[in-house]
Amino acid sequence: MILFMLWLFCLPSPLFNVPTATVAESNSGQMLGARIADDGQWRFPKMDSVPERFEKCILYFEDEHFYWHPGFNLVSISKALWNNLTSDSRRGGSTITQQVIRLSRQNKGRTYFEKVIEIFQATRLEAGYKKKSILNLYASYAPFGGNVVGLETASWRYFGIPASELSWGQSAALAVLPNAPSLIFPGKNEEILKQKRDALLLKLFQNEVFDKTTFQLAVDEMLPGKPLPLPEFAPHLTEKIRKEHPGKRIETTIDFSLQKKVNNIVKENNYILSQNQIHNLAVLVLDVNTREVLAYVGNAPTTAEHNNFVDVIEKPRSTGSILKPFLFTSMLDAGEILPNTLVADIPTSVNGYTPENFDKQFNGAVPASVALSRSLNIPAVRMLRDFDLQRFYNVLGKINLNEIDKPADYYGLSLILGGAESSLWDITKAYAGMASTLNFFNNSSSEYRKNEFVEPVYVKNHDEIDFGKIQQKPSVWNAGAIYEAFEAMERVNRPSGEENWEFFTSSQPLAWKTGTSYGFKDAWAVGVTPKYAIGVWVGNADGEGRPGLTGIQAAAPVLFDVLNVLPQSGWFKIPYDELVEVEICTKSGHLAGLFCEEIKNEWMPKNGTRTEACPYHQTVFLNASENFRVNSSCYPLSEMVQKNWFVLPPVMEYYYAQLHPEYKILPPFAPDCLQDGEKLMAFIYPKKNEAVLLPKNFDENVNEVIFKLAHRSPETTVFWYLDSEYIGMTETFHELAVSPKPGKYLLTAVDAEGNELREKIEIKTLQ
After folding, report:
1. Comparing 82 with 587, which gets the higher pLDDT?
2. CA neighbours within 13 Å on the CB side: how many for 440?
3. CB 291 within 8 Å of CB 464
4. Euclidean distance between CA atoms 474 and 470, whole angstroms
5. Distance between CA 202 and CA 212 in Å, rounded?
6. The Penicillin-binding C-terminal domain covers which part of the protein (predicted)?
7. Does the pLDDT value for residue 56 go beyond 80?
8. Average pLDDT over residues 645-669
């Protein structure tokens, strides 16, 4: 009874407790990469099954009676014992089952006592395991020379293919190796290895396992030699798996064909970018609807000197303008703008923060969608100020931009221009969440899911993603706002000064956005279709900026190269249930007001009906010649001409009129007419409550400061005063260069008609 209990519990659990390598495979089973086990051995995780060819080879070479003996072969043991007692040579009589036991016991010394233990445990192994499982254990843990352990590992290391694809010659060569693993070393004992392999092949032929032709072809095959490098199709994802799933064989969601294509795209673009000393590049492709990772290129195939080992996809980088679509969508969703509402693009200063457009120019006024597609900075900052910084910060939290984790005031209004950092993983995830929200709404009878902005997954057969309960209201943005944002992003205009933009076209539509961080350190391009989300980051991992390192020039070409290798996915369906058809003022993009003459019907997000009617159209009364405005104080009512006029505020008008020849400036009042408090002029610089800084030149002398003013009648003369001191006059172009001393002043401008404008200012010297 004691002996039986000892036999029953004689096997350890688990039988093999050794570290294994980490292996990453594509969604169709191809190897993407592997990382060595912690003990320095290339030992892949246990195999699921043994290929038939190798099984035949190993049984005929090691243990022909494997399927019939109880764990040991008494005949083989007797022959081995007689040989060892009567000769100087040594012969083994172990079965495959015994060899599995010996491997599990870390190949302890070959003594007769150890042999008894092996036989004892082998019978227990046979009683508890199926024959196929025992064979599988042997194939998984047998040594194949050097630090190569296991059939699957050996197949990749010596032939560069999975074990399931081994030929008869390759299978036979590997079958003889566990018996004498030292034969594998190149240039050493190759003839012995060939003799053993060929003898095994002959035995297989004689037992009619295969025909003569197969035998002749097999003996002519090359022997395994120097270990080959393992595949590295997704090195950074493989390393990610090693950290998160160490020692596991992980079948990922990666599309093997797409991964190879994206690798080639990255390689080609990296070569071009490296000519400008731009060395790092990352690409992430997600399935919008499943949130599965389809392609993962964490960095360009550069050198260690240029940090090729850094997985840029996970590293936070300055976002540049890549957050602007989130603000645009938020304001559409809240009903605070319409897609083409005119927004101001004029000199702006907010508490000392003075944003600039990339081209250093001002447009006066632009449609909000154009401001987004052209990535204009000033309108974005003004829109963020109007929407409220904290409110937008809360939106970013809802879409799980995890790296933006400091208080909103830490970032300030620069948040929308790259003042915060986020990762390519989070940004691409957020764009995918927008597309998924729209898709689900259109496919689910106008409903939403609570958790659209979930983490992407890269493990195949993963747990079901928790998109949350179905609800009638969106958790972040409604489908109508997202659709209008995508429409604006699909109609991207060519930024001024960017030649060859027309070549960045594709046969399938894409909602996309670029971004460039301050100092030309980070270039972004992210785009979505109904099926795919593509994220691209280009730059230097060490943060070095380079001229030309912009989203348009560096990242956008990669984005479109990737798009062109993806299957067609069409365009997003229109979410009519979240839209309403309204009359829009063509010139201003606002809801049509009483005085709008050009009106069109457009579909808008429902909350867009909350926006104000067009504030820029007004009715005016002109004299018969229509060259002066008049009123009842100076002109007969019967002779007045009534017209509707598109009028922008003075500063917006100042810049807008220069770019729009069709814009007609409002005629001045007739000289003898009383004006009804009309605002004829406005300071462009300095603005209200803005400190004026006097910069120093290289000689440490204080430079002049230029006061600037917009006037409805440019031909008029304007007289300038600091406090009560006259400092000059301007005509036509109202810009005055002065060199005042530091201090607080009252700046006054008076035109020839006696109209006056005042502003309190403070002048400081820039230290």
Report:
1. 587
2. 27
3. no
4. 10
5. 9
6. 671-758
7. yes
8. 90
Running DSSP on this structure, what letter comes out for residue 591?
B
Confidence of residue 704 (pLDDT cuts 50, 70, 90): confident
Please name which of 183, 199, 194, 200 lies closest in space to residue 222, comparing C-alpha atoms.
194
Using left for φ > 0, alpha for ψ between -120 and 50, and beta otherwise, residue 334 falls in: alpha
The whole-angstrom separation of Cα 149 and Cα 298 is 29
What pTM, to 2 d.p., does this model score?
A: 0.86
**pLDDT, position 83:** 58
C-alpha to C-alpha distance for 242 and 645, rounded to whole angstroms: 67
Residues, the chain, total? 767
How many CB atoms sit inside 10 A of residue 82's CB? 12
Three-state SS sequence of 422-453: ECHHHHHHHHHHHHHHHHHHHHCCCCEECCCC
pLDDT in tens, 231-279: 999 999 999 999 999 999 999 999 999 999 999 999 999 999 999 999 9
- The closest alpha carbon to 348, from 78, 678, 684, 28, belongs to 684
CB-side neighbour CA atoms (13 Å) of 458: 25
Report residue 664 as tokens.
């007609």
d(CA 373, CA 514): 9
Nearest CA-CA partner of 533 in 452, 459, 434, 437: 434
For residue 53, pLDDT over 90 is answered with yes
Angle between helix 96-104 and 52-62 (nearest 10): 100
Look up residue 518 and give its two tokens.
């301050």
Residue 532 CA, distance from chain mean position: 12
CA distances from 222 to 139, 188, 200, 250 (A): 22, 15, 15, 31
Cβ contacts of 491 within 8 Å, gap of 6 or more:
369, 373
Neighbouring C-beta atoms of residue 309, cutoff 10 Å: 14
421-430, 650-659, 731-740, range with greatest mean pLDDT: 421-430
Q: How far apart are CA 574 and CA 479, in angstroms?
A: 9
- State how far the Cα of 395 lies from the Cα of 208, in Å rounded to an integer: 72
| pLDDT interval class at 678 (50, 70, 90) | low
* pLDDT over 70 percentage in the chain: 90
What is the rounded average pLDDT for all residues in the chain?
87
- Cβ burial 561-588 (10 Å sphere, 16+ → b, else e): bbbeebeebeebeebeebbeebebbebb
